[in-house]
Records
---
Amino acid sequence: MHLGIRLIIFGLGLILSIIIFELVRRKKFREELSLIWFIVGIALMSSSVADLIVDPIAKKLGIGYPPALVFVWVIFFLILALLYFSAVISDLKGKIKELGQKIALMEFEQNEKNKKDSE
Amino acid sequence: MRYLVVIPAFNEEVTIGTVIDTIKQDASFADILVVNDGSTDNTSTIVRGKGIMLINHPFNLGYGAALQTGFRFAQRKGYDFVITIDADGQHVPSSVQNLIGAMGEQNADVVIGSRFLEESFKVGIAKKIGIWLFSLIGKMYTGTQITDPTSGYQLLNRSAFSYLAEGDNYPLDYPDVNIIMALHKMKFKVVESPVKMKESTGNKSMHSGLKPMFYVIKMFLAIVMVWVTRKGK
């Protein structure tokens, strides 16, 4: 791979990591959710030299087209990421339900109290 | 004995008024609570005009969540029994006496109103297959024939609705045979009683488009989860 391409890929990974860092610093991104994107950033940076590692491994595994191995890793990682976000959404959905119900019940109690007070 | 009728309602301005009037007439012994599940129409205004209790969800949470809010309310206010009736006018309130009778006679914790026990009721073929399949699974698991597991017309005693009021014991959307199985596993006695139902006047149905397919898959998963996770009380 040409050195320029390697630098561009590394730079993109670095920019992504800096953006994520800034989002966490400004409290716009929770630490636990940012972790997965930090991994993406690091993976992107290290992919600038990935061919040096991937090509020999692919050769050993008998994979004729080395990028196919990268695709398998990436797909597996994305599935894990989706699974993680699904779990987060499920958890939030449960919490939103609890909150919604509590607000509704409290609002009812408050209205009843206001009615009694005005009588 | 204090009874509470819980009516979950989502955009039911066409039917809710009549449903409330009929319940007031045919089940005058019970208090009425409408849980307005984030309706965007005049449901809330109509209910307020009827002088009954109204709880408004801040946004739409689902049919099951609205019922659970009703269970939580009943638990807090010390009600002995909860009767659940749909807001679309399908359930005939005078049949509530059948539910009460069945609960007393059979010493049950939950009585499900079945539209199929006494008279034939027209339902679509897809729904018919679904009901038959889930009834069969329910019978295999509980040993009791439940002919109408999707029925939202139910009577629950305090221990049953208090259990369902807790955390994730009730689904967000539509309760089905999975809840009957979960109740059975928790040693609650679930029986059926005949009730009269009318064809729904609204156009809303969960049984349209691709929804039935997803519903069946989801329900199978829920059934498996009841089988593997719930513990006896």
---
Amino acid sequence: MTVLEVSGVSKRFGGVVALAGVDVTIKSDEILGIIGPNGSGKTTLFNAVCGVHRPDGGRVRWNGVDITGKPAFEIGRMGIGRTFQQAMSFPSLSVRENIQIAMEHGSHRRDGATWRWSSAEELLQFVGLEEFADESANAMPFGNLRRLGIAVALGGGPSQLLLDEPAAGLNEAESVELIQLFRRIHQLGVGVCVIDHHVQMMAELCRHLIVLHFGNKIADGPTETVVRDAKVIEVYLGAQS
Amino acid sequence: MTAVVVVAVLALPWFNPGYRALSFGITTGFTAIVLYGMAVPFGQAGIMSLGYAGLMGFGAYTAAILSRDFGMNMWQAMPFSALVAALFAGLFGLPSLRISGHHFAITTYVMCELLRITLTNGGKFTGAATGLDLPPIGAAFGVNLDQVKNTYLLVAVFMLASMLATYLIANSKYGRTLRSIRENEQLARSVGVNTNMHKVLAFMLSGLFAGIGGDLQAYNFRHISPDLYGGAISLYFALMVMLGGPRTLFGPLAGAFIVTFLPEAMKIDPVDSRIAYGVALIAVIMLLPGGIIGVTERGYQWLVEAVRGAPRGASPPEANSSKA
């Protein structure tokens, strides 16, 4: 089991406090969901963990090792994979090449361990994109692009995945397929942490939820407790109705 | 196709094209060497630098100074020229870690100008505005390399070697790493690509080409001066690469050939030709983003598919797709 420990991490952009000292513990034996309204600091939290932004305060520990402020590529190699809100890919390269880049640079090369997928084709099969291997990434429909983003992150050989709104822009059926994919990834022993707005989907996928609001953690616990929490309903669930 | 071009390049002297055409061919050759280097960071990693005239200058001045002070010939100076140019290429590339696009291009342009000013005011060491002289290339294996036909072949062999080197880089794992930087730097970092290191490495690699090109140029001209290595010359290099197509096998050669020969062939006044270049550059950027060779390749592929009636399948691989 791997543990990603975020303690007291804060980040401000000018006068805006994006994270006001947040504590989060992500264990690989559970699928963790992080919810919260827009601007509550969810993506900033991921960026602070992954080395995109250097936290102003607090520490990030990965299996006990302090990784606060390390460059993004090193964190990627250490086994923390991520996807992006905007469904990123290497657009004009083929789907296969997208995966190959990740596989050639990921953490599995560092530890010398053999990774679960010996080739890009096998990994593409796992996420269900094998028939698109020779297409260029930007020629694929949006739903597939989301899957490709996940496959690229997996190609790096992570032991923890951080997924930033992976279902944004997808329809009901595609979201359901995605949930199944996350479960299969988790069964491989990879930690899965998901950010999303989709409360229903998150309640179904995660047994553990964390709620952020204006850069503060306002709830952290089993899903059934969190969704009944009066404060959560007020700031987030209530705001939607 | 590749074979046809190689044979055509090497066989040219036997068609007796005359001294003038051959010396233009030599100029095309060492220019193309620099352009093949430039095609690595620009074509693969997607970073446009306007520093290449300057880097060529480092190669040329290294050759001239080593010849004057240590009596080295062209061959002995070549590794030093390549290394010095590579070192400065890395230095010129450093701003790319912080800035990109036009901002980086302008920064490198300024670096070229700084070099030109430094060379002009370098006193006896750099020969100031007059520049430096070099001895003839001499002979190798009993062949007089100063005869224009032989010089042409010498430069042609180096040009073909640099074409091959760029092709191998583009089609290696390393080429793929560089393309990941071009396509999406943030994503590349997240999967473990050390983008900063690879950017500088790509520039240093291209600097080797520029240094060798500069060494060959210096020994062909036998006199070099600061004006050869200013920012304006770099702009011509950029035009050539974009005109030909930086991601194609023949693009840099085609670009160097067109820009070197065309004004001569069409008897265009130098000032007019500069205007023509400006117009050509804008036209290429707007109409032919893959360069002349890139568009030709795509047209050819489209034609083949149309004739075969095959369903439109995958898009062709991006880098150096000509595999004739």
---
Amino acid sequence: MEETKRYIGWGQFLLLLFMCRVFTLMTFVPFARDGEGLSLRLTAAAVSTAVQAALLIPVVLLGRSATSVILDKNNICGTVAAALYLLFFLFYTANSLMHFQRFLSARFFPYADSLLWIAVILAVCVYCACLGTEALGRSAVLLFWIFIIALAAMVFSSAGDADSANLYFEPLDARGLFSAVLDDLSRNGEICAAAFLAGRVRDKLRCGVYGFLTAKLVLAETVMLLIAAVLGDFAVLSDYPFLALGTFGGERFIQRSDSLYLIVWTITAALNAALFLHIAAELFGEVFPKMRFRTAVSALLVFGILFAVTTARGSLEELYSLICSGWAVIILAGIIPLIALIISGKIGRRKSPSEKIERGESLQ
Amino acid sequence: MKNNDKEFEMNPSNLFDYKDTPLSPSLAENVSNIETVLGKSSDLLLNPFFIGNIACNLICFEGMISTQTITNLILAPLTNIDPEKYTAADKLFSHIHDNMLMAIDRGMPEKYGELIHRLMSGFAVLLIDGCPKAFAFGVQGFETRGISEPSTEGNIRGSHEGFVETVRTNMSLVRRRIKSPLLRFELFPVTEVSKVDVIIAYMTDRVPMKLVKKIRKKLEELPLESILGSGYVEPFMENPKPALFSGVSVTERPDVFCAKVLEGRIGILIEGTPFAIVCPALFIENFQTLDDYNFRPFYAFLIRWIRYLSFFLAVFLPAVYVAVVTFHPELFNHALLMTLASAEQTAPLPIAVEAFIVLLFYEIIREAGVRLPKSVGGAVSIVGGLIIGDAAVSAGIISNPLLLACAISVTASFVIPSLNQQITVLRFIAVAAGSISGLYGISLLAAAVLVNICALENHGAPVMSPLSPFTPKAMRDVLTRIGFPRMAKGRASVEKLHGVDMDRQ
């Protein structure tokens, strides 16, 4: 399905990326690694956010023309950039779905056929992706409110069990901090989506970008503190502390409320994967303009990657880890847009009225 | 124009030759051509007479005109014309045109197409020998249903008037409620064969004329032979992409119609159906009724949230029950779990099959209740209650908790009749999804439905407004029902919602 160019508001842009981050938080909080204490995690999240803010400066400066400048069709570099982004988003989508499937298998459906369940969610994501950026943006707004209600329920039901004695802040280690920051960056692939979605934001891109970074930092820090305060050392042992918080919380007329939260997590996972699938389909259009059924092709490739990674392993796993690493995020979210900004010559010169309009700025 | 009747009857393409053919000055030729086009239909009444030396003919369709009206307004004045004064056809024509009113609704068709359309709309047509024009007098007197309470939209404190099948009567019902010079009606015939009259109604200061023209063009270009219900027109007013929910609303109530027109929408009245179409429509309006604005705000707030809850119960309750019992029993506390386990243990069929059977039986009984003659309608409830409510449970085929869940779901769907079609279909799909993969399947379905609704737009208005795109001020009438003193401070309008661009299709 071909989508005519439609714009989303900066609020929808913010919430779309925010819900992607929420999905990652639900299934990726890495309390289980040895040697990574609370202070390291909290500091790494803050430093990582600062790094992301710096990485996104070129995208903010490019404004609505970010996508067209980065993926310049008249330039071979634009096509190469499109191919790199495409590869990243395909692997990142596969990565997200793989983690979600592991999360489901570990906590809810241990005997389910993993690939079959991924195929089901992929089918839904293909449909959602075909409906376009506007539909996904609007859905993110509604999903945000549903998440807030679920989070509030989780917080209120478990806040009574929080104990400040569980909050132990160990001394920081520079090397550990550096790897923790890279680790955190690798789980923030949605900032690469910012470079692509910037072209779809009607106005106030800056508000959207920095609002998103602020919101996700607040969320991450709050959730990590709450998990540590409520679960204590158990948070270190648990694979999915956020889920454990939900399980620990609800006890009244509902025996365990984690199954209810499954609804929110599944919808968030679908939205997350649909967004990246949609972007991948658009990028296919940049690299292979005559290709049809791009979203379906993207989904098939994602499924193929998952199948290969879960069965073939070996060198493919190394490639997989490289593409989904923090360095890839740095390159795609920051370095490529910076190069595009420099090449386009937009630094150090006065903006023309049309450029100001493109970025949603005042002409005064 | 062919005079060979038999050949003409067998060649339908001749029927389309008359539309732009001008009337002839010869009365005999005109009458002959009219008879040829209409095929000497039994309900066609031809009344030849003379005014002095001038031959005339009064033509109408039997049953379409009011005998008393035509006698008093047309026949009597015509027979009172002094034949000595008007010996020429053109003078007679001018006299009738300038000095004799004869009917409020008058026209002067000059072509066969318009003349025949007028005849079929209940006009009486006067032809004068020597004049290439005719007079058409609106003396309709066909039987119509009286204004009565709408059958599909009940209310407690609102008006009990509903639209009827006559579009002109409906127009008057709207005009009586909006006595504004800015309210406009545009009446025109649509469809190739039946030439059904439709009216578009709008406020000139609240709707972009570009949108009015767009909708008018869509109606004029309807590729249908006839319109026998509003459902024929709805698909053409909606977004062409397939969607579960509709971007147009249908109402039988003139007060609801007026409220929506005042909010800057376009209303469409169709001859032959009491259901009017309004576009663009928002999803949230399915949960709003006129009674909300007649009750106290706190009560309206409670009722509105009950409707929101009812929607989710109607769609998801049976599915969630099936999913939780099958895949997530840990959600129940021990006491409830034991109760449900003992009930389900005795049922011989898988719970998903039970759910399908109950829901299917309900749909059969509901459909039977609608189609059955009223005199035996009571038998449906007896049979339904006995078969499902008593015999099935007593026989142990269906468990009580499941029956309860389905009954609550079905009852909840009555709260939002405008979404009945979608609720019914989604209910079945949700049960299937829940029985296959538990809450995971239901969540995926919810995700697909959510994105589907969010993608829907109608004439530039996102259907999920004001929820998304979010419009804080408009949320006052979504989350709550604000009082009229506060509501009166700002005029509610679809155009003021974020993301609405009625110039966009």
---
Amino acid sequence: MFRIDFNKLRFLVCDDNPHMRRILRTLLHSFGAREVYESEDGATALEMYSHYVPDIVITDWSMPIFDGLELAQMIRQPDSKGNPYAPIIMLTGHSEKRRVTVARDAGVTEFLAKPISAKGLYQRILNVVANPRPFIKTKTYFGPDRRRNTTNTYIGPERRIGGEVEVLQQPSLLDKARSTV
Amino acid sequence: MAKEKPGAIEVKAFTDHHVITPPNPLRKVLHRVIGKDLDDPVARAEKALAGLSGEFQNWMAIEADRLSAAHATILRNGFTDDCREELFRAAHDIKGDAATFGFPSAAAAAESLCRIIEHAPDLDEVPSNLIAHHINAIQAIVRQRTKLDTVATAGELSRQLRGIADEYLMQANRDRPEHLEAIMAPSIAPVE
């Protein structure tokens, strides 16, 4: 079993809804966090990100002016002066699977669909602390490795070239299905 | 906050990508606990959340009033981009917050309203009663919660609204397969 020293972590919370910010602040303080900075929009959050250098960012998606997705994209600039590697947990009322994919492709580390629970938030924080993923940089993406599955058997069209997956010969799903008939 | 001496960033180059392993400054905050851990941060947080619950009814009333105000603006000005955005954001906040505040049926009705705003091909063509009924239902669920017999009624009301809204959206999007797919896709929101 592992325990996190929350009092050594600095959080940046970004949500335009004051009630949700209060909930998040209460949960994080109860976990033991002392430093929780809050912002009600993405632009202010980006300024605070540069100024306070948080260890973990928790952001809503839907916000006026500059949303959580844009915030993630701005943080994940590989050549920026700031830290492009901080874990980003997206906490959102969006609950469609395609949204998870969009958030993932913007460089979000963890996705947490509302309604929020203490357990759900704790597990996401534990995961970003205990299981950091390497970052991948391609022409079109910079962010945490989007592969959660560590096996090299992925045969989809967007597989990377140059790793072990390139030399694996995998039967197509159709061939697999045929062979079992 | 969680500071340690910056380690080297490890970069492996491949044909079309780089794998970058930055040093993990958060590693120092993680400790293995030997034996039984008597500290339970999740239980502590749930208790703190329960301590806030006295404010939830008031918070929900504020959120519901914001939704009604956004709807009133639309009735006056029509579906301008700003008005639509504010109505969606107000409904979306209730969808996300209401279950945490103890109003899951209000969350369900708000989700149904969000789906209408997101997937209706033309909001001016949506029967005005359909939107008004959603908003009235949310207001009623929030204001009438203290009555003992309202929980089941609230659930039934939300289910019926969702059924009517889905039927409308399926019909209105019959020639828009990408919207039909999104409408029919299951939610990933955790079940209460």
